[in-house]
Amino acid sequence: MTEDLPELRASDADRERVAEILRDAVAEGRLAMEEFDERLDAAYKARTYGELEPLTADLPVAAAGPAPLSLRKESGAPAPWSERIVSGTEGSAVGIALLGGFQRKGRWTIGRRFTAACLMGGGEIDLREANFAGPEVVITCWAIMGGVNIVVPPGVEVDVRGLGIMGGFDSGEDGVPGDPGVPRVIVRGLALMGGVGVERKLLKAEKRRLKEERRRLADNPRKELD
Fold first, then answer.
1. Rounded distance, CA 133 to CA 122, Å?
2. What is the distance between the alpha carbons of residues 60 and 105, in angstroms, rounded to a whole number?
3. CA–CA dist 64, 108 (Å, integer)
4. Averaged pLDDT in 10-residue chunks for the chain of 226 residues
5. Is residue 188 a contact partner of residue 161, using CB atoms and an 8 Å limit?
6. Among 58, 81, 194, 203, which is least packed by CB within 10 angstroms?
7. Contact in structure between 190 and 168 (CB atoms under 8 Å)
8. How far apart are CA 193 and CA 205, in angstroms?
9. Can you spell out the DSSP letters for 116-181?
10. What is the DSSP track for 170-218?
11. How many Cβ atoms are within 10 Å of 223's Cβ, its own excluded?
C-alpha cells in the first residue's frame, strides 16, 4: 500500500511501528547494532511513507505486515479473524524489559513463538488488534522481579502453563473455550518474585460500537423484530 503513496505524510504511530520492527530485527540477530542505530534514527526523522519503507524492506516481518496505522479505517472493530491469521510469516518474536519496559500493541504480528523477558521491568502484550503468524502461538514469559501483562480479545482460547515462585502466574482465563476459527494462545514460563497476568478485554472503540448498537436496538425494538 505504501508504494502507491510514497509522498503521503507518515504519522507518529507509523514511525513507531517501524521502530518496533527494527527492535525485533536486532534482537533476532538480523541487524547489527550499528545498522540498527542508523535505521532507527532515520525512522524517527522520516516524514513520508516513502522514507519509511526502505528501512524494513529487507526484513521478513515487513513483507506481510499490516497497512500503516494512519491508513486504517477507524470502524471501531478489528479486522475479521480470517484476515488476521497470516500463516507463513515470522512476526515479532521477542520483547525485553531490563530495568525498563516494552510494549506490543495496536496492529502488529505476533510470531508462533514469542519470548517476553522482564528483569526488574514490565512488558505489555496486547493481542486485541494483532495479526497471528499461525492458528496457535506460544508466549514464553520470564518475569524476574518484574511483570508481563497479556491482553486477549473475546473468543481467543488461552492455555496457561506457567509457574509462580514468590510471585503470581494468573490463570483466570485458562480453559475458556475459544470460538471456531479463532487462534489459541499458550502462555508458559516462570514468574520469580514477579507476576504474569492474562486478561480479556474489548477495544474501547469496540465497546463504544457495541454500546451504540445496544442503544439503537433499545430505541427501535419493533423495527428490529420486523
1. 24
2. 19
3. 10
4. 57 76 82 88 86 84 47 54 82 92 91 95 93 94 95 89 88 71 92 92 72 68 49
5. yes
6. 58
7. no
8. 35
9. EEEESSEEEEE-SS-EESSSEEEEEEEEESSEEEEEE-TT-EEEE--EEESSEE--TTBTPPPPTT
10. --TTBTPPPPTT--EEEEEEEEESSEEEEEE---HHHHHHHHHHHHHHH
11. 9
Cell numbers given for 78: 478489528
Cβ neighbors of 158 (< 8 A, separation 6 or more) are 152, 173, 174, 175, 176, 184, 185, 186, 187, 198, 200
Q: Look-up: residue for cell 532515520?
A: 42
CA angle 76, 102, 137 (to 5 degrees): 70
User: Is residue 7 packed enough to be buried (19+ CB in 10 Å), middle (13-18) or exposed (0-12)?
Assistant: exposed
Cell numbers given for 216? 439503537
pTM over 0.70: no
In the numeric block, which cell numbers belong to residue 139?
Answer: 508466549
